[in-house]
């Protein structure tokens, strides 16, 4: 596997993604693309489930710190979000609610009193000019108030590290194959 298949590259929000137009204004918008190896699944929901089930231990530790802080402000914690997932496995991917699916994209996210966010896992079904398929993980955030803007200011650098880490880790472990979809 080439090193390119382990590199999460910052890219513009894909215009074909449903989240590119999710909010009239955004307080954070980013996207990272990674090459999928030949034979890998392009099922966006399967890939999203794989990515979020393979997170590094440091990410879980970071989320525990986040929960300890935001819980004091009445914001949703990962434990609360996970309990929502226990109620209905079909409507969530990990702690994220599924807002929409298509053959090439799954839209995940959550709404809270301080902000709303959407995550997109978008797969290229057709190889690019170089014969490569890519997965793009994009995030857009719309803040409702000062607490939301402060939250984004604090977590944005960590968010970017987590997204890139999740993509690189999934690539190192090995993407699910198309036959697993």
Tally the structural domains: 1
Main sheet?
A: 7 strands, antiparallel
Name of the CATH architecture? 2-Layer Sandwich
Q: What would you call the shape? A: globular
Mean pLDDT: 88
Beta-strand percent range: 25-35%
Q: Which CATH C-level class is it?
A: Alpha Beta
Q: How much helix is in the residues? A: 25-40%
Strand order of the largest sheet: 1-2-7-6-5-4-3
Structural class of the helix and strand makeup?
alpha+beta
CATH structural fold name: Alpha-D-Glucose-1,6-Bisphosphate, Chain A, domain 4
Based on CA atoms alone, the radius of gyration comes out at 16 Å
- Helix-strand pattern: EEHHHEEEEEH
Low-confidence stretches: none
How many distinct beta strands? Answer: 7
Terminal Cα span: 21 Å
Number of H- or I-type helical stretches: 4
Task: Report on this structure.
The chain is α+β, with helices and mostly antiparallel strands and 181 residues long. The protein has one domain: Alpha-D-Glucose-1,6-Bisphosphate, Chain A, domain 4, CATH 3.30.530. It has four helices and seven strands; from the N terminus they run ββαααβββββα. The protein starts with 8 loop residues before the first strand and ends in an 8-residue tail after the last helix. The model has no long low-confidence stretch (mean pLDDT 88).
Report a brief summary of the structure:
The protein has helices at residues 44-53, 57-70, 78-87, 146-173; strands at residues 9-11, 28-36, 92-93, 96-101, 105-111, 115-123, 133-143. The protein is an alpha+beta fold and 181 residues long.
Defining traits:
seven-stranded antiparallel β-sheet, alpha+beta, Alpha-D-Glucose-1,6-Bisphosphate, Chain A, domain 4, single chain
């Amino acid at each position: 596997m080439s090193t390119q298949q382990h590199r999460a590259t910052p890219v513009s929000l894909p215009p074909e993604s449903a989240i590119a137009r999710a909010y009239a204004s955004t307080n954070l918008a980013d996207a990272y693309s990674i090459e999928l190896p030949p034979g890998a699944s392009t099922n966006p929901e399967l890939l999203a489930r794989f990515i979020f089930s393979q997170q590094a231990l440091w990410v879980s530790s970071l989320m525990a710190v986040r929960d300890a802080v935001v819980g004091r402000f009445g914001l949703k914690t990962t434990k609360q979000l996970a309990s929502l997932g226990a109620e209905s496995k079909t409507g969530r991917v990990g702690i994220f609610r599924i807002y929409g699916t298509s053959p090439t994209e799954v839209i995940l996210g959550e709404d809270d009193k301080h902000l709303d966010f959407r995550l997109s896992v978008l797969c290229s079904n057709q190889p690019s000019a170089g014969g490569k398929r890519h997965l793009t993980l994009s995030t857009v955030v719309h803040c409702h108030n000062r607490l939301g803007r402060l939250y984004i200011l604090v977590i944005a650098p960590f968010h970017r590290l987590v997204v890139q880490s999740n993509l690189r880790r999934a690539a190192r472990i090995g993407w699910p194959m198309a036959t697993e979809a």
